[in-house]
Hints:
Blueprint: H1 23-36, H2 49-56, H3 60-73, E1 76-79, E2 83-86, E3 105-108, E4 111-115, H4 138-151, H5 166-179, E5 189-192, H6 195-206, E6 212-217, H7 221-229, E7 233-240, E8 243-244, H8 246-252, E9 258-261, H9 275-288, E10 291-295, E11 320-325, E12 337-340, H10 346-357, H11 362-373, H12 376-401, E13 407-408, E14 416-420, H13 427-436, E15 442-443, E16 456-460, H14 466-479
Parallel strand pairs: 6-7, 6-9, 9-10, 10-11
Antiparallel strand pairs: 1-2, 3-4, 5-12, 7-8, 11-12, 13-14, 14-16, 15-16
Helix pairs in contact: 1-3, 2-3, 3-13, 4-11, 6-7, 12-14
Amino acid sequence: MAKTAYDTPLTGLTLDPGSGVPLYRQLQDGLRRAVLEGRLAAGARLPSTRVLAEELAVSRNTVIAAFDQLVAEGYLEGVTGSGTRVTATLPDVYLDAGQAPPDAVFQGPGLTAVQAEPAAGRGAAFAPGMPALDAFPHDLWRRLGNRVWRGAEPALFGYGEPAGYGPLRRAVAAYLSSARGVRCAAGQVIIVSGSQQALDLTARLLLEPGAAVLFEDPGYMGARGVLTQARAELVPVAVDEQGMDVGAGVSARPDAAMAYVTPSCQYPLGGVLSLERRLELLDWARRSGAWIVEDDYNSEYRYAGRPLPALQGLDETGRVIYMSSFSKVLFPALRLGYLVLPSELVARFRVARKLTDGAAPTLTQATLTEFMAEGHFNAHVRRMRKLYMTRRDTLVAALQNAPLPLQAAVPDSGMHLVARLPRGRDDRALSAAALAAGVEVSPLSVHYEKQPARGGLLFGFAGFDAAAIAAGVARLEDVI
């Protein structure tokens, strides 16, 4: 029998040209599963791209694209004179139970292909979006929670109001009115389990399948996933120093049913939507009857001047749906966020909230209400704003003093900064290698619809003290 040019036959690997998922992506996912399930052993040699293309009846470019991505993720490696092999030592982070690798695609009955954002929040520097858990007033929160439990009426142990605990809705409305310039009454506030649920409810209730949505490019992948799952047609709209290019987006699809924007701190670049473009966007929504989803995800943290008023405060015709959460301003495990809706939508969203998961935990909502009513929330925001500015400056100095090929932009707001790489450097490959070394820097390119001219890395700074920042930059030096 002739000796094969590779170690392991790729049995069970099939591609479906009619599935709607690109062939290279199907091949990439199939090979990744084979590695994670142990069907492709560490160090196993794979067929050449030419041979595998012939076996699968696809173009060689399809195989090359799949191999290149898996090399970037750390699953495969090219060995000079020996072709492509499964990496001898896989990063443990990919093998944790329940942990999906970067750029994973999830599918199932009724679930469209959705690209997932690279995993965050594992606690490693520099996970974007991670608040300073070390600086949260844990003892104070515990005392407030104990007080709520001791004095709770029997009704607080029931299922709860789908729209949210009444006192918390009033506290949120008062805070948004004074701090964010949002025009609302407590009756327009719906308490949800974070921004993702807010987006999911909004998409399912307001979008028909195939409806066009103007979407920032680059943009927030969590929103992209929700809107894709709702079978919306995403219309990528370029972002510049003034935020989303509203004129270009409206010209491309004046019939769009919705626009998704992060006007106070564009994600991931950090810019601000200019007043001219805010008014242009509101005028388009008024004329066309479209909805604007304003994701105000961490506007509290602005380091130059006062926080900018919300877009919703300029809305005269009730076309803006405002959303935010307490995950970044307090802590992610709280799992509480909120929507501010035009009055005519409240009843629909309340029913949908009830059908989704009933209501947010009432005792947790009551504890948060006490935290806000006694002034602790505003005090915490002020303390964190100062702390995060210090940590931002510490990270900027560390990056500038390190021999790294990075050009870091100093943000005026937010909890992360973007550092650009030289042209030709693969930010996904660098991110995967950094993760294997215990450093979490998200690749900028995954937030774009198309590959940008220059890649970059997102460095979260809010959740990490000076020692963690220094250690993370040192490990990144070794990786690069």
